[in-house]
Amino acid sequence: MKKEFAVIGLGRFGGSICNELAEQGMQVMAIDINEERVNKFAAVASHAVCADTTDEKVLKSLGIRNFDHVIVAIGDDIQASILTTLMLKELGVKKVSAKAQNDYHEKVLRKIGADHVVHPERDMGKRIAHNMVSNNVLDYLELSDEHSIAEVVASEKLGGNSIIDLNIRARHGINIVAIKRGNDILVSPQADELIRAGDILIVIGADSDINRFERKAL
Ligand code: ATP
Ligand code: ATP
Ligand code: CA
């Protein structure tokens, strides 16, 4: 069965989620208090509804409990975001993701039971800064405060060596989960796989170990 999503708040962030879910063929209900915004999504979403989600009766009448995943993308009105999230959890919605506007907002959202909190401006800023600092790092995904997955380009220095020759796990404490080579991707490469200069290594590990690997090995 296909998952059913609801997106509350159709600003840039919520609107973009809505478009992408629809693009991926998902069922998505688009909700906003602002009628103009709702109209913009009438053609994209399975349903587009004008409603104030801080009103419990309204949430119930939308049958919000039956959705698999609800995204609260209300930003500026922090009070509305918190109230909506709280009621969604009280009504028994299994999975609620919420957008935080600042660290305090994030803390409150977690306390009241949001299953997933995103902080797009901060997280994207971090990610872009990280990519700017190192020439070898193409992309980077934060798993926790201390762990990430990074895409790094293999240097001439690494080229011609096998994973086992380089002893990457023991020496650097990181794992190569995949190698991108042209249009091919080798998932879970064997230890005897020869790395070529220009390969894109997808590595997982502690940030400190990944940073050291970037500086020492690449
Ligand atoms: P973004 O930063 O994603 O571009 P934005 O800055 O345009 O968003 P926000 O104030 O963050 O707007 O709110 C996103 C949307 O949430 C707005 O379209 C707003 O109308 C809607 N919204 C605000 N309060 C409620 C509410 N109580 N019920 C439903 N929708 C709401
Ligand atoms: P964000 O969406 O990243 O949280 P914001 O919504 O707080 O940003 P923006 O209007 O996007 O604010 O502007 C970001 C910052 O750029 C603000 O601190 C603002 O003072 C500054 N800024 C805006 N215009 C100029 C300008 N012409 N020259 C210098 N700084 C500017
Ligand atoms: Ca905003």
From TrEMBL:
The UniProt entry, under Pfam families, shows: TrkA_C, TrkA_N
Question: What residues does the RCK C-terminal domain cover?
Answer: 135-218
The RCK N-terminal domain, residue ranges: 2-118
GO terms under biological process: potassium ion transport
Q: Which domain of life is it from?
A: Bacteria
GO MF entry, a single one: monoatomic cation transmembrane transporter activity
Write down what this protein is called.
Trk system potassium uptake protein TrkA
Species the sequence originates in: Mesobacillus foraminis
